[in-house]
Amino acid sequence: MSVWTDLSTGPFTLAFVDVDGVPTRSLRAGPQSSAAPPVLFLHGTSSHLEVFAPNVRAFADAGFAVHAVDMLGHGYTGKPGHDLEVPHYVEHVRRYLDAVGAGRVHLVGESLGGWVAAWFAGVHPDRVASLQLVSSGGTRAVPEIMARIRSTTERAVYEDDPAFTHERLARLFHDPDRLAADLVEARYRIYHTPEFRAVLPHLLCMQDMTVRRRNLLTAERLALIGAPTQIFWGRFNPMGDVSEAEGIHAGIAGSRLVVFEQCGHFPQLEYPERFNAEAVEFIESVVGRT
Question: What pLDDT is stored for residue 289 in this prediction?
Fold first, then answer.
């Protein structure tokens, strides 16, 4: 498997967008016109835009203006010298949309990206046409999971053995054989830049209980979300069982929950064809009724 296989069948651009002085790595595909509904992909903690490489082409071929970015402090995007909490990511997303001239956007967020997307939808409802949350974080603070995120990420970043990067990713798959070797290589290279090693403590601040609690997606915050919402979850998601998804589903009025049975934390990577079909269909249904 290769995360770039689907992208290779059509045109795309990979460039840096100046977001109020923050160079932001952005992959774009599909028609980049005012008539094409924009879709923005947001990744998870210590991740990068490549985790959506198998999905971009399907959305572009459906006629959407696709954007996948390295979030603030992540990947090759600029790295502020301070702790990054959810409002920082939300503001960076808003400024990115302004920089590329996107008004209302269809948000697809995975893990931390889902957390940020849900928060964004609550505070900027006029900017969100639809919301899709993929194994979204943000509603629980479980010490064991938080400690595991910190320890596995620190080991992968601070140790030079690529096996630790592979382990960091493979444990998130129900079937590790579905993990593409070039995704591991892309992450290893990012992890071992001096800039990423320096910023890591600022990214992992969300694994501190005090910090996490003040950033949680409370019932009140979920209730603010008025955009059409679809939630994807893997039955064997090691970051949280299906009851967490059910809680998000119950908290967002009118939302739809889709559970992938033989799947871990990455429905979009383990079952890209099914994910792409259902995610594109959902946005098309929203576009069709607006």
Answer: 66
What are the extents of the domains in the chain?
7-288
What's the pTM value of the predicted model, to 2 decimals?
0.97
Residues 120, 105 contacting (CB under 8 angstroms): no
Buried residues in 256-273 as b, exposed as e (16+ CB within 10 A): ebbebeebbbbbbbbbbe
Instruction: Compute φ and ψ for 140, nearest 5 degrees.
Output: -135, 155
Q: In which residue ranges of the chain is pLDDT below 70?
A: 1, 289-290
CATH 3.40.50.1820 for domain 7-288, yes or no, is yes
Could you give the angle at which helices 143-158 and 162-170 cross, rounded to 10 degrees? 150
CA angle 62, 64, 69 (to 5 degrees): 125
- DSSP string of 155-187, one letter each residue: HHHHS--HHHHHHHHHTT-SSGGGS-HHHHHHH
